[in-house]
Design brief:
CATH superfamily: Thiolase/Chalcone synthase
Order of helices and strands: EHHEHHHEHEEH
Helix content: 25-40%
Strand order of the largest sheet: 1-5-4-2-3
Distance between the termini: 22 Å
Radius of gyration: 17 Å
Number of helices: 7
Structural class: alpha/beta
Length: 185
């Protein structure tokens, strides 16, 4: 089966403030954004940019999967949460942080916002492994009900704030989804 890239986006920020500033510049009305952890904000922001002008947006879609990857999982939030429970004398566990101590929350935030009802998954790997990403996406499309997959590498840890996001489709475009394509990212 051949797959194609319909849309793609590469974003990089110097800090978390720039992510929030970019979100505000898009004039998106989604107050829940400000409750999200940094990883979810970054993935959410990229998805807003990818789907900004989609005429079918916000209609329930069972044919769209969300598949994300990174190398640091949710470590940024994990460290912040650990700080709230590390000291028995100053013990203040934060439920709002704990919610985000799983990296797959970002896929859920994107799916909920866009009403995607297909598979959502998040994979943690040592590096931007193009072969693994390609095989995983091909496997997602083995489910015949899936026509699109929103695929992303989202890294939010230790002053790295970057996302590579692309919409993969069965619909033919000029850009075939291949390992070679991924290597060029």
């Amino acid at each position: 089966m051949n797959l194609y890239t319909k849309k793609q986006l590469n974003l990089s920020f110097n800090n978390s403030t720039e992510i929030v500033d970019c979100y505000r510049s898009l004039q998106v009305d989604y107050p829940k954004f400000f409750k999200m952890d940094g990883l979810s904000k970054l993935g959410f922001l990229a998805s807003e940019m990818i789907f900004r002008h989609d005429e079918n947006r916000f209609m329930p879609r069972e044919d769209v999967a969300v598949v994300c990857f990174n190398r640091s999982s949710s470590l940024d939030t994990d460290i912040k949460y650990q700080e709230t429970i590390a000291d028995n004398e100053n013990y203040f566990p934060s439920p709002s942080l704990f919610v985000y101590t799983l990296p797959n929350i970002v896929t859920g935030e994107i799916a909920i916002r866009n009403k995607f009802l297909g598979e959502t998954s998040f994979y943690v790997c040592e590096y931007f492994d193009t072969t693994l990403i390609f095989r995983t996406v091909m496997n997602v499309f083995s489910d015949k009900s899936i026509n699109f997959a929103l695929v992303a590498w989202i890294e939010y840890f230790e002053n790295i704030f970057e996302v590579k996001m692309f919409l993969v489709s069965k619909e033919k475009t000029d850009l075939e989804f291949t390992v070679k394509y991924l290597n060029q990212l």
